[in-house]
Design goal:
Blueprint (H helix, E strand, L loop, with lengths): L13 H17 L4 H16 L3 H10 L2 H13 L6 H14 L6 H8 L1 H11 L4 H14 L3 H9 L2 H8 L8 H14 L3 H9 L2 H15 L6 H14 L3 H9 L2 H8 L10 H6 L45 H4 L9 H4 L65 H27 L11 H11 L3 E2 L43 E2 L2 E2 L22 H5 L12 H9 L9 E2 L1 H5 L17 H14 L7 E5 L15 E3 L9 E6 L2 E5 L14 E5 L6 E9 L13 E4 H5 L6 E2 L2 E11 L12 E10 L6 E5 L6 H14 L5 E10 L5 E9 L6 H8 L3 E6 L6 H14 L4 H9 L1 E5 L4 H5 L25 H15 L6 E8 L5 E4 L3 H7 L3 H6 L8 H9 L20 H9 L3 E8 L15 H22 L8 H15 L45 H4 L3 H4 L6
Parallel strand pairs: 8-10, 18-19, 18-20, 20-22
Antiparallel strand pairs: 1-4, 2-3, 5-7, 6-9, 7-8, 9-15, 10-14, 11-12, 11-15, 13-14, 16-17, 17-19, 21-22
Helix pairs in contact: 1-2, 1-4, 2-5, 4-5, 4-6, 5-8, 7-8, 8-11, 11-14, 13-14, 13-16, 23-27, 29-37, 30-37, 35-37
Length: about 1150
């Protein structure tokens, strides 16, 4: 036997041994020899493939042509009569191993005629289980190719599988398992599925399943039952299969067998139930035709095989394309159209009343207990608590039925009740604690008396400010309500809430955060900051001004109503909202209830209660039916169907001029009863997963709560889950892909008040009219001698709405030449937001940025003196107004149009890019460009940037990445934010450039304009899993804080990048350092390991997409997982300061 030893030297590597063994097989193929020789060589190859590290060896074997050599050996061995059994077992075992590693394996096997060889071996040796098992494993690999699957089906392979599988038996369970896996793969072919239906195999599969389910009491054959279900799933992909399944009573059979039995104490089922609660609710993120199990469960590769490098085809690998190349794109003459939007570059300020400022020691203004510079999530810097909110209601005159009479009666009663109290109010004008009746007693009637605000009948206001004077035509007399118990830990509110026809939410005392014991007393926690009196800033919410702005807002449906939350305004609630813990089995229960609709159809009401598609539709008048509405700005709800008494299916609108992007929702509900659990199912969502599976809750706003001095959106809902449903998407709506399904968001709500008016939203709404209102308030409130503020119109949108452009910086000290030069030479920072309408969190972050830049904070003043800010706070006004999730009116994602925007179809992008091109043309490149976004499938706040070196590093071409020389300054700002912003997570940041993102703002501004620090900043829709806010859902407080912290990060960046030019009082610098250092204590340590948000759900989340909504690209776990060198990791501030500007 010594002459048969091909590799005698033990020192040779495994790869060398494989090469030698393949050479020996080639020689055997060329010169047929004894089967013992071939058997010996194949046994050696099989041993290498099955031993530790076999996965890498199999891949190497494929690269050396091993598939073709072994297929040829199979052909030669089959010519022997009879074939050598041991040799056939070994060859089939090896081919079953290497087949999945070879993309062309199916074609090679078909060309070599191997399909029929394997199939005939099974037919001729059905009782020889030792030989049939590897043959079935190889047939399963063959069937992964659709052409092979059809070919095998024509030769009777489906019928053959049903000869192997059968009723419950303790023998040959492994053989039956592999046969079922093979059958499931074969039935993915529609031809084979039809053949199975024609032969009545659907009924056979159900019978076999029931038998195994009944006898497998100890749950030792769960994989066999799973294989039967996979076969049923494959055959029901066709209409004939579904019909046969229903005719065979399949729904009821599977429903009855899926009910939870008594959980055993030991065994595999007990182990399953002992896992953490989220394991049972795995979301099936795969497409209907993409879940082929190529490897059997008992063939899992060894751990050392898992470290193979993953290749992401979406990562740009062309160095020439990666290198930024400034391309003007437009001529200088063409760009001159933007000169009027940069008056700060030419203005000599001769006509301005400037006050020359002498250097003064740094002092704080206002009553401040401690050194607070940056507002944190505990502060109310927006001034929402200091304004009077007036809600002007439509006069309730109704001549229809009893309802109108009841409303009139209420108004008359209110008049009589109020007359006696008018005197009391006049006699004691300072007594704000006297109540006429309890808030809770009146609110039910108040809400009934309040019709929806409409634009047609709102009287014009004498002034857009906070006047409290009553107009003569107001028929409602004076009423005083007080907040009896707004918050359990606060003093009683005593401000006027209802005066004449005006609802006024006075200074709410509910803006603080309940103090809790905190181990870290030195940190700038929200609890400490909430107790600090913040210097008065501009009050941004003005209901009267909002109404005036809405009148001029142009929408496609021509909205005539205003949603209460947008009118009343929102202040953050004074309590924390933790991420919701999902109870075990909730998704299973919800799906079972959905299945019951098909089994017990007589219990289903199936009545349409809201329908935008039918303009003649009338709302049912029954008292126990909820009433819905979405006919207001940013609203999105298309149709509602009552399924059961307290269960409703909701259908969302697609984006205008598009047939998909169903995700954003914002609608009104009324007519509810307290103490009743209402279930809402939004049934036409498209994403394959959502943070609703990981603790996120929808937002709810209650009008009665707002009247009770609690005007805020709160997280609401229980039994929340997000799962694939049985509604199929058309191939047109699915981008040409067939077999796509919709997904359901389901949640249950118990309303606290009877006949309330409540609103639900995907995230905190922020309308276009709200933005315009905020900008007007900022403009009217700023100090023109201190702050340079301009609000221009960048362009008009397709619908005729203006796209605002804001410029903010500090006024020059005087109109002297030196001061004007210093003013003009400040570097630019360009910010944009809300290109995707459904990402409302981006607007809240932008609000925080704008308020901070316009504040009297000394750090903000220093920031204004350091930069000129050009801000486009809403890039997609039309999409926001019309309730789109992602697109503009052109039906296109504007963040994919930056390479070649059309001035006609994408005007906001065309002109925003034009501004940047103009700055590049006049040699005033922005130091930073950042586009604010929201992310629906990750937690925390993080950034995407652009780096050649990190992109090349991800291509696994280490040699090339070592040759790339690149300034690492693009990492400075994210690293700063990771230290000062509690919600920011450095480990989630990525600086990889992908091909699919070549036309996004981040990449185009980096590549074409030449801005090195070009970022997308993504804010979570859910919450945080690190830092101070770990375990909490994110709110507007935290989002606005992030916008303010971004500003502080820019100030720190200025000091690090140009220390010699940074002229700030030393006390302020020390003060800022104290802030940053104290913030560091509450943030998580910065790492460069990107962990998946929710690994237990096995969802391959797109961590690199700009906002991840329209593409589900499979990425490696380590995307964004760039590991900087030790030298980069330990950079000090002094070293970082030497990073040069582009």
């Amino acid at each position: 036997m010594s002459k048969l030893k091909v590799i005698p030297e033990k020192s040779l590597t495994n790869n060398s041994r494989i090469v030698g063994l393949l050479a020996q097989l080639e020689k055997i193929n060329a010169e047929p020899s004894e089967s013992d020789t071939a058997r010996y060589v194949t046994s050696k190859i099989l041993h290498l493939a099955q031993s530790q590290g076999g996965g890498r060896r199999v891949s190497f074997l494929v690269t050396k042509g091993g598939s073709q050599i072994l297929l040829q050996l199979l052909m030669n061995a089959s010519k022997e009569s009879p074939p050598h059994e041991d040799l056939m077992v070994q060859i089939h075992s090896i081919l079953a191993k290497i087949g999945p590693k070879d993309k062309k394996f199916g074609v090679k096997a078909r060309i070599n005629g191997a399909l029929n060889i394997t199939l005939n071996l099974v037919k001729q040796n059905l009782q020889n289980h030792r030989l049939v098992l590897p043959c079935l494993q190889l047939l399963r690999v063959y069937s992964a190719n659709s052409v092979n699957s059809v070919s095998l089906g024509k030769n009777g392979v489906v019928e053959l599988m049903f000869k192997i599988i059968g009723p419950f038996s303790k023998k040959n369970s492994s053989l039956i398992k592999v046969a079922l896996d093979t059958l499931a793969a074969l039935l993915k072919s529609k031809t084979n599925a039809r053949r199975a239906v024609d032969r009545g195999y659907v009924q056979v599969l159900l019978t076999i399943y029931v038998d195994w389910h009944r006898h497998d009491n100890r749950h030792r054959n769960m994989l066999i039952r799973k294989g039967i279900l996979q076969s049923l799933k494959s055959v029901t992909n066709i209409k004939l299969g579904r019909k046969a399944f229903i005719d065979a009573n399949g729904m009821k059979i599977l429903y009855n067998t899926s009910q939870l039995p008594v959980i055993p104490v030991t065994g595999p089922v007990a182990q399953l139930y002992s896992l953490p609660p989220e394991v049972d609710d795995v979301v099936d993120e795969s497409d209907d035709n993409d879940d082929i199990d190529v490897e059997a469960e008992n063939e899992t590769e060894n751990e050392d095989d898992l470290d193979q490098n993953f290749k992401n085809d979406d990562i740009e690998t062309d160095i020439n394309k990666l290198k930024p190349q400034q391309e003007p794109g437009r001529t200088i003459e063409d760009l001159k159209m933007y000169e009027h939007l940069f008056p700060e570059l030419v203005d000599d300020f001769q006509d301005y009343d400037l006050i020359s400022k002498e250097p003064k020691p740094f002092v704080f203004e206002g009553k401040v207990r401690g050194p607070i510079v940056v507002p944190t999530a505990g502060e109310e810097t927006s001034g929402n608590s200091g304004n009077l909110r007036k809600v002007v209601m439509k006069e309730n005159i109704s001549s229809k039925g009893d309802e109108g009479e009841k409303k009139s009666t209420f108004m008359d009663l209110a008049k009589e009740d109020i007359k006696d109290n008018d005197r009391t109010l006049q006699q004691q004008p300072g007594d704000q604690n006297r109540t006429i009746s309890s808030v809770h007693g009146l609110n039910n009637d108040i809400v009934k008396a309040l019709d929806r605000i409409t634009l047609q009948n709102i009287p014009s206001q004498t002034a857009p400010g906070f006047t409290a004077e009553m107009k003569k035509d107001c028929s409602l007399p004076l009423t005083v309500l007080t907040c009896a118990k707004a918050c359990p830990h606060m003093a009683t509110c005593g401000n006027v809430l209802f005066e004449g026809r005006t609802v006024q939410l006075g200074k709410l005392c509910c803006t603080g955060v309940e103090t809790e014991d905190d181990e870290d007393t030195e940190s700038n926690s929200s609890v400490e900051q909430a107790s600090v009196e913040v210097p008065d800033g501009p009050t941004l919410h003005d209901p009267d001004l909002y109404i005036e702005i809405v009148k001029n807002t142009k929408s496609v449906p021509e909205y005539s109503e205003v949603a209460y939350p947008d009118y009343f305004g929102h202040i953050p609630p004074p309590f924390k909202e933790p991420i919701l813990e999902r109870p075990y089995g909730v998704q299973r229960t919800k799906i079972a209830q959905d299945i019951e609709r098909l089994i017990h159809q007589s219990d289903i009401i199936d009545r349409v209660v809201y329908d935008l598609d039918n303009p003649n539709y009338t709302i049912p008048e029954e008292g126990d039916i909820l009433k819905f509405n979405s006919k207001f700005e940013s609203g999105n709800l298309r149709k509602v169907i009552q399924i059961r008494k307290n269960e409703y299916d909701l259908i969302l609108n697609s984006d205008i001029n598009s047939n998909h992007y169903h995700q954003w929702f914002y609608f009104e509900v009324s007519g509810m009863r307290p103490g009743v659990a209402y279930r809402f199912n939004i049934i036409n969502c498209e994403k394959s997963n959502s943070q609703f599976n990981y603790g996120m809750q929808p937002l709810m706003y209650s009008v009665q709560e707002a009247l009770n001095a609690r005007p805020w959106w709160i997280r609401m809902g229980t039994d929340i889950c997000y799962y694939k449903n049985h509604f199929s998407r058309s191939s047109v709506a699915a981008g040409g892909q067939k077999g796509k399904s919709y997904y359901t968001i389901t949640f249950t709500v118990n309303f606290p008040h009877k006949d309330d008016v409540c609103y639900f939203a995907y995230h905190y709404p922020y309308t276009y009219s709200t933005l315009q209102m905020h900008l007007q308030k900022l403009e009217s409130a700023h100090n023109p001698q201190q702050i340079y503020f301009r609000k221009d119109v960048l362009c008009e949108t397709l619908s005729g709405n203006s796209c605002p452009l804001v410029t903010i910086t500090a006024m020059p000290e005087s109109n002297y030449y030196e001061h004007i030069c210093h003013f003009r030479n400040r570097p630019y920072v360009f910010l944009s937001a809300r290109v995707h309408p459904g990402e409302t969190n981006a607007s809240w972050v932008m609000k925080g940025t704008l308020e901070y830049l316009m504040s009297n904070n000394p750090t903000a003043q220093s920031l204004r003196e350091s930069y000129i800010f050009k801000i486009v706070p809403m890039l997609n006004p039309d999409g926001v107004i019309n309730g789109n999730h992602r697109c503009s009116l052109s039906g296109e994602d504007l963040n994919r149009q930056w390479q070649s925007p059309s001035p006609d179809l994408h005007p906001t992008i065309y002109h925003a890019k034009g501004l940047l091109q103009y700055l590049a043309a006049v040699k005033r490149l922005p130091l930073v460009y950042c586009d604010y976004h929201g992310h629906s499938r990750k937690k925390n706040v993080f950034m995407y940037g652009c780096s050649i070196k990190e992109t090349v590093w991800h291509t696994n071409d280490n040699a090339t990445s070592c040759d790339v020389v690149e300034d690492t300054g693009y990492r400075t700002l994210p690293k700063i934010l990771s230290h000062i912003a509690p919600a920011f997570c450095m480990s989630s940041c990525s600086f990889v450039v992908e091909k699919s993102k070549e036309s996004t703002a981040r990449v185009v501004v980096w590549r074409e304009i030449g801005v090195q620090r070009s970022y997308t900043m993504e804010s979570t829709l859910c919450g945080c899993d690190q830092g101070k806010y770990k375990g909490l859902q994110i709110g507007t407080r935290e989002l606005e804080e992030m916008g303010a912290k971004f500003c502080v990060g820019l100030l720190r960046l200025k000091r690090l990048t140009s220390p010699l030019e940074y002229n700030l009082p030393s006390s302020l610098l020390d003060f800022e350092n104290d802030l940053i250092e104290s913030s560091c204590k509450v943030t998580s340590p910065t790492t460069y390991v990107l962990d998946e948000d929710e690994p237990r759900f096995l969802e391959e989340v797109d961590y690199s997409a700009e906002s991840n909504d329209e593409l589900d690209i499979e990425l490696a776990e380590n995307v964004g997982d760039y590991e900087p060198s030790a030298q980069e990791e330990v950079l000090s501030d002094s070293e970082l300061s030497r990073t040069y500007l582009p």
